[in-house]
Amino acid sequence: MGISTHAARPVSYFPVSPVMLFPEVLGDFSVYLWQGGDFVLYTKSGQKFTARHRQVLHANGVKEVYVQSSEKALYELYVERNLGTILLDETLPIDVRSQVFYEASNVVMQDIFDHKLPSAIRAKHFSRVAEIVKNSIRFLAAEKSLAAVAPFISHDYKTYTHCMHVFIYSVAVFQASGMNDTETFECGLGALLHDVGKAKVPRRILNKRGSLTQSEREVIKEHPVHGVSMCAHLPMTQNTINCILFHHEKLDGTGYPAGLKGDTIPLPVRIISMADIYDALTTARPYAEAMPPYEALTLIRHEMREEVDMTIFKRFVAVLSGADMI
Q1: Which tens digit of pLDDT belongs to each residue from 93-128?
Q2: How far apart are alpha carbons 316 and 297 in whole angstroms?
Q3: Where are the alpha helices (DSSP H) in the chain?
Q4: d(Cα 78, Cα 69) in Å, to the nearest integer?
């Protein structure tokens, strides 16, 4: 972040990699260079960033350009609209694509959870989430993509980052399980939206430090039903709905909201449940510190083996090990 010294009012800027500006794509934000101790306009809002612009930056060794903080939302929308192109562009380093994927996805999920939404998810938010899922599935299927995304996974718990992590882990296991593209998309959508019902749970309960009361636990346990209710008007398949509604079911029948048992819990739901438990254990929450990965997996294996699918557990461990995340 930088501050312009010449403007009548201080203007703040944030850095952007030049590889994130796409030739011949119109941007609704201005791009600046840092030269001679000040920010200098390079391309203005509404001007196409050309291949020539990029070549000049590369020739001069420019590693960062800048966008005004007041135009950050416009830049984020630009990245979101071009996400599919970014993720499949193998000329870009995989760590750059991973960062863009993670940050762009988090912006969308934060919008859903941080804004005062009505009782239902707006269609525009849903279409943004669906695009994130569609654009990222092929990227996450690529070799080493999970390992490249891993450094960006935060260990501070927020509902929207948690949904992202569960989506990332789940899609990796879906693909390792041989699920086809359609089912991976439908269940990936469910994974990304699995906790959307928490938007209707009071913040004082979600963020409470210390143990919850029994009545507070009952309020929390309503979030899967709230989630399905919020999505009732959206074009979702039964696979997606199952993932939102049943992700807290347990193999021994002690889960909620329906008390499903054993094979009555769909396979994709069991995968999401595993990812959900693992991410909750390995991120810092108001009432518990984050566990190291090996410790969390050991706890699941020894203390939850009656509740989770141990075949899925082994596959999950193999996926994490393959990405060097344990």
Answers
A1: 898 889 889 988 988 888 887 764 556 677 888 898
A2: 10
A3: 51-59, 72-81, 83-87, 94-114, 123-141, 145-149, 159-176, 181-192, 203-206, 214-220, 223-230, 238-246, 267-282, 293-303, 310-322
A4: 14
Q: What is the DSSP letter of 68?
A: E
What are φ and ψ of residue 31, in 5° steps? -115, 135
| Six-digit token string for 43 | 């391309």
How many whole angstroms from its chain centre is CA 95?
A: 16
Least confident stretch, 88-97, 128-137, 239-248: 88-97
pLDDT at position 188: 97
**73 token code pair:** 């939302």
Note every long-range contact of 293-300, with CB atoms under 8 Å and residues 24 or more positions apart, other chains counting. 293/320, 293/325, 293/326, 294/326, 297/326, 300/274
Active site residue 198: yes
Measured from the Cβ of residue 47, the count of other Cβ atoms closer than 10 Å reads: 14
Q: Please, are residues 96 and 19 in contact by the beta-carbon 8 Å criterion? A: yes
Residue 42 in this model has a pLDDT that exceeds 60? yes
pLDDT of residue 206: 86
C-alpha pair distances (Å), 60 with each of 21, 24, 57, 285: 16, 21, 5, 45
Q: What's the whole-model pTM score?
A: 0.87
Q: Can you tell me which residue has the tokens 């693992």?
A: 278
Range scoring the smallest mean pLDDT among 105-119, 144-158, 186-200, 205-219? 105-119
CB 13 within 8 A of CB 5: no
Angle CA(133)–CA(139)–CA(143) in degrees, nearest 5?
A: 140
What letter represents residue 127's amino acid? S
SS3 (DSSP) at 154: coil
Q: Which amino acid is at 60?
A: N
Range(s) within the chain of domains with CATH label 1.10.3210.10 = 82-322
Catalytic residue among 198, 208, 261, 314: 198
Decide if pLDDT at 4 tops 60: no
CATH 1.10.3210.10 fits 82-322, yes or no: yes
pLDDT at 3 (0 to 100): 56
Confirm if 56 and 34 have CB atoms less than 8 A apart: no
